[in-house]
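Q: Got a minute? One more chain.
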Amino acid sequence: MLMLMANKWSLCISTLTWLTLLSVTNSVRITNLKVPHTYTLERNTEPDPLVLDCEYEVEPREKGFVLKWLFNNHSIYQWIPSVKGFAMGIMKSKIDTKIFTMEGSPGVITIKKPDWNMTGEYTCTVQTFESTDKKSARLQIIVPESDFVLETKMDGEQNGVDIMCAVQNVFPLPKLSVMFDTKKIDSVLTHTDQNSSGLYSTTVRTRIPRDRLESPTPITCAFFLLGTNYTKRRETIFYGK
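A: Always. Here it is, folded:
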């Protein structure tokens, strides 16, 4: 009888402990993290602010609430109910600390004049004295090309066709490929530079023997930006002259 009562008491204690832990675990949590997968900086236009949002739920009884934003594990913003939100670190001058008032949520931050080097992992953390939660998402900044050219010409001895394809001032790193008809050319010379602004320029060159080309033959150059769906292509027709 005593053993049965002890087992029941042990079960009650275990259940109570589990419910207590469950309550603590769920007392503050992030319900939605809004970080775009990509953000394109259009050329010759003033960039729109980059807006991120961290939606959360917190129990009214919770004390010591703090919300933080991090970029690549470095703190960039913090909000405490009794204190104004403030930016810090590498984005101190970039974050508009007044935006949450307009949006109605302290989890909203806006980054003014975003640039390519703001590509990375953004993390929102919410915590109280009793519990914590965090979510992360990666953002890729895209800078479109300033120029994209495809040129073809017969070599001096009329034995082959020289092909040059170049894309300039893009981010992230571009990957170029050249095709004639539907055949990809694997033997190409590739040269890539990164300028002081962090943008890439890549040029590929190759030569196709004249006897491999019929007239007319389409010659295509395409590129994509690593980690994105951004792609462009150029095409010209070889007529054997």
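A: The helical segments are 2-25, 99-103.
Q: Perfect, thanks.
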